[in-house]
Amino acid sequence: MDLSASARDGRAAKKGPGRGWYALAALPMICGFAAMGAVLFTQLSKLDDGLEQIVVPGARELRLEPGRHTVFLEYRSVVDGRVYAVDQVPGLAVRVEAEDGAPVAVSAPMGSSTYTLGGRQGEAINVFRVERAGTYRISADYDGQVGPQTVIAVGQGFMGQLFSTVFMGLGAVFLGMILTVATVVGVYLARRRARRA
To answer: Which domain range does residue 167 map to?
Structure first.
């Protein structure tokens, strides 16, 4: 019987997980970043489609669902391949009318909300609420004064969906990091126990 070979086999069995496990521990974090990229890529494009753009001064009829809607001023925007960029829109007034011509109350938002999507940058300037689904006329002008041509966008629940998308992406990364740290700690403890055995 080869006692030296048996001793070597015993020491090998007590070494515990190899160093390669540390490299494998990075996989959850890598997957987390990949998941964040996938979430942002798929969901942000949907959010972009959810904003109805209107070149103003001008008007457009939109089919709206009941609830609260937000009007954003897109001070950097692209519509039909044309780029719009403004710094100030003094006196720009937004109006909303129901199908029967009845005006819908428009007010300033409670807080500041901004977004950047590709080549578009917007800021909330007005909010309004509709009680029933239907076609509404959204218009904006400078009350007879001269002002720059720009773009407004109308959306419902846009900022909430944007925050949810971002938090989903960050959550995937955070979970991946936790799993990576837990794996590294587990491998380290297993190797240390094996050395002490």
So the answer is: 16-190
